[in-house]
Write a structure and sequence with these properties.
four-stranded antiparallel β-sheet; globular
């Protein structure tokens, strides 16, 4: 009875669920059906779906008990002992649950899978690492996450995330009520790695842009993202774009001098299948100036998932708002110092590039260098003005932590707040903007 539907979803590339354009990049676990297999499936349906030789029937499939890896995790941690009560209706603000795993020594993690207690109401769940004060960490402290359609896989051999001793884990829970009250207890399963086997330390960095407004009815609104500041031995392992219901497409490119190489193209983004795109061959970043992204949104009535085509849409945590975010796993040799862009220790303020050194190293005239520096200064100043205009609600020239969106507090505030005083002054905002220009 499903024959025609099977052919339809295959021909429309809805099944198997995979959204990367095959012209760009090769990815681990790509779910792509070869043309020969498609033709075989169509011929089988056309011929009446005859049954094969009974002797060739394989044994029944044994489905795992919720874990994506073949073996069970080394430890399973719940977000708390009692379930969280999700109401039938209304908006639920992000919920945060702190867990102390009581790890008294550094742990190296090769995989972590987050399993929602009730996937029907869990929009997403992310488990972050909160290291002890004074610890040197990188990136956003990512341990693992759950979004619809994503599979969990182990890091490559010799690769692992370092969890500093006495760290706590923070569950960030986003619930979307669906008309029926329910209860949720989300868990994370963790697979450890022998420290003696670790040669590459993996961290997660994030690119985001919350300075956008999508007009009503816009069919193809573009938002740009950028990530830079890589070390000489850094390698890009994979990427994951994240938008909401108006997300249309995503393009990731590596910028080298005046050339741009497309690494990943997702022409038809699907909120229900948010993939982690792990490269078969990690990308060396020593000559990459920046990772550049183009995110497109469809706010028109032609988007069947659009909750309100008549609305202006801005950044927001809830599903009917939008996000322009991309996550990246980056590996570097174990023990190698962090770059300024990736560092997350309080008090470590990244230093801006030395203009005189740039002029001495360049082969172009000093006047041209000066012009480039002035354009850069203007871009930085404009970004600072936009940042303050959007977030400085009381106009005092300082952005307090509680003035920023919840997601920015998790993903970006700590990188800006170099002195750890829970407020962003103009110098800190300028320093962060200078890192991107």
């Amino acid at each position: 009875g499903w024959a025609e539907m099977i052919l339809e979803v295959v021909e429309q590339n809805r099944m198997p669920p995979w959204h990367a354009d095959p012209r760009y990049g090769k990815f681990v676990g790509a779910r792509q059906l070869p043309a020969k297999a498609r033709a075989m499936l169509a011929a089988w349906v056309d011929s009446g779906m005859p049954r094969g030789d009974q002797r060739d029937l394989p044994p029944p499939r044994e489905w795992p008990s919720g874990w994506h890896l073949a073996e069970s995790p080394d430890v399973v941690l719940a977000m708390r002992e009692r379930p969280y009560e999700v109401p039938a209706e209304g908006t639920v603000d992000y919920q945060y649950f702190v867990v102390d795993p009581q790890w008294e020594e550094d742990r190296w993690v090769r995989a972590a899978q987050v399993v929602p207690g009730d996937a029907a109401v869990v929009h997403h769940a992310i488990v972050f690492v909160r290291p002890p004060d004074g610890s040197r960490t990188e990136g956003i402290g990512w341990l693992g996450g759950y979004v619809p359609g994503q599979r969990t896989g182990p890091l490559p051999d010799g690769h692992a995330r370092r969890i500093p001793a006495r760290s706590k884990l923070v569950f960030q829970m986003h619930y979307t009520p669906n008309g029926q009250a329910t209860r949720d207890t989300t868990q994370v399963g963790v697979w450890f790695c022998d420290p003696d086997q670790v040669t590459q330390e993996v961290t997660t960095r994030v690119a985001l842009n919350h300075h956008f407004e999508i007009p009503p009815g816009a069919q193809d609104h573009e938002v740009r993202l950028r990530l830079d500041g890589f070390g000489g031995d850094d390698r890009l392992l994979g990427a994951m774009p994240h938008m909401h219901l108006r997300g249309k497409s995503f393009q990731l490119a590596a910028r080298r001098s005046q050339q741009q190489e497309t690494l990943l193209l997702v022409p038809r983004y699907d909120f229900n299948w948010q993939h982690w795109y792990q490269f078969e061959s990690p990308l060396e970043l020593h000559d990459v100036e920046a990772l550049e992204m183009a995110v497109h949104f469809d706010n028109s009535s032609g988007n069947p998932f659009n909750p309100a085509p008549q609305d202006f849409v801005t950044w927001g945590d809830q599903t009917w708002q939008e996000m322009a975010v991309a996550f990246f796993d980056i590996a570097r040799p174990r023990g190698q110092p962090a770059t300024a862009a990736g560092r997350q220790r309080r008090g470590d303020r990244p230093r801006a590039a030395n203009p005189s050194a740039a002029a001495n190293d360049a082969d172009e005239p000093v006047a041209s260098v000066a012009a480039d520096q002035e354009r850069r200064r203007q871009r930085v100043a404009a970004e600072v003005r936009r940042f303050l205009a959007q977030l400085d609600r009381n106009g005092d020239g300082v952005v307090q932590r509680d003035e920023t969106p919840e997601t920015f507090r998790r993903f970006g505030f700590r990188e800006f707040d170099m002195n750890g005083d829970e407020r962003l002054d103009r110098d800190e905002i300028e320093a962060a903007a200078a890192q991107r220009h």
